[in-house]
Amino acid sequence: MKLLLILHAILICNQIVDGHRILGIFPSNSRNYWIMQEELMKGLVKRGYQVDVVTHFPQKNPIPNYTDINLAGSIREVCQLMDHPKIHELIKKLPQNSPFDIVITEMYIVPCYLAFGRHLNVSIVVMVASVFHLLNKVVIEVGGVHIKDDDPLPPEVQKWLDESKNGCIYFTFGSMVRIETFPKEIIEQFYASFEKITSVRVQMKVAKKENLLPGLSKNVMMQSRFPQISVLSK
């Protein structure tokens, strides 16, 4: 089994495999990871491939030649998802000589999903988010696959930034750490800091606003998601 280590993501799979059907297995429920993985799989569809994608984030609108294997709502350890009915169905349905030409998966802490390559008798492309210090010919660095030049800001966010005469601070802990779950004492310290800079506006990512401690100063805008690249490029 040929193992290809890919940093971040690839949009050059046509240089690796001559086939037309790809299985993507992305067991992490982190949206931060999924943003790049999604762009990779959509990019492959645009290049003429058919993809089947194991994901917690199915497409809202159907895409031709893109099939979701939906894990949404599953809260388990990554390897424990191997017991998910959808994963069982996938394993049992496909013979060893499967219709897939390649498997793309993520190396998320544990390597349990590499077994799909052996089970399906196909090559594997592994996506990893950390940086290797020693690169070789089977490691390809591709950054920024997910960045879109035409990702417009929502009107209310655009207005907020345009009216920020003294600058704006983008404040986030990512998608895996939720500020609303922090102890009250820590949140109050953040609030006190924001009040000291009321002339500067703040954009703060909060997954569930209703769970956040009240008392946030008016110079802070809360959203469950900001288009981060577009915000930072302003």
Please explain how this structure is put together:
By secondary structure, this protein is of the alpha/beta class. The protein has two domains: about 5-140, 3-Layer(aba) Sandwich (Rossmann fold); about 155-230, no CATH class. Helix content is about 25%, strand content about 20%. It has six helices and ten strands. It has helices spanning about 30-45, 85-95, 115-120, 155-160, 185-195, 230, and strands spanning about 5-10, 20-25, 50-55, 65-70, 100-105, 125-130, 140, 170, 200-205, 220-225. The strands form two sheets. It has a seven-stranded parallel beta sheet. Strands 8-9-10 form a three-stranded parallel beta sheet, with no helix packed on it. Helix 1 links the parallel strand 2 (about 20-25) and strand 3 (about 50-55). The longest helix is centred in the N-terminal third of the chain and has 16 residues, at about 30-45. It starts with a strand and ends with a helix. Mean pLDDT is about 80; it is low at about 1-15.
How would you describe this structure in keywords?
10 strands; 24% helix; 234 residues; alpha/beta; Rossmann fold; signal
Quick take:
This protein is an alpha/beta fold. Helices cover 24% and strands 21% of the residues. It folds into 2 domains: 3-142, Rossmann fold; 155-232, no CATH class.
